Amino acid sequence: MIAVLASFFLLTIPGQSTNPVQVASSLDTFFQKEVWAKVGERTCLQCHKPGGEAEDSKFLLRDLKRSQDQAGDLKHNREAFTRMAKMEVEVHQSRLLLKVVGKLKHGGKEQLKPDSVEYRVLADFVTRINTPANTKPDFVLDKNAPPFFHSVKMLDDRQLVRRITLSLAGRLPSDSEL
Description:
Layout: H1 2-11, H2 20-40, H3 70-86, E1 88-90, E2 93-94, H4 95-100, H5 117-130, H6 157-169
Antiparallel strand pairs: 1-2
């Protein structure tokens, strides 16, 4: 059980996979469910679309709700966000993040607050885009380390029943329960 949980934990850490197909697939899913659904569609698409106030900008998005080819348009939107996420104004300062908080010239002024959930979603996307897929984890598993619960002392049955009864029933167990 512990091995299953540990392997699940390691597989779900962002940036830990070295399989490019798996990384691309997880990034596509993250873009669709987080970036597009929570930021792009709600905020950016208001102006950055054909016929919108920012139709002359290089950051032009397509409305998936009016699309014949949703997969193709979603890919187009992801590529537009990726281009903006990769552009740096200063060292480690994404143009995308600076624009949405109004620190760079942006016709729509400040669109997101720096402490908002939407901004954090965009910041996470920028980090994922600008972090190579084959980076090594910040920690190293010691293959010779003892099992995780090696030094944990288990309770005997009597103590276990006492604790469970106190926790769940709010009373001490009777003699017949012990």
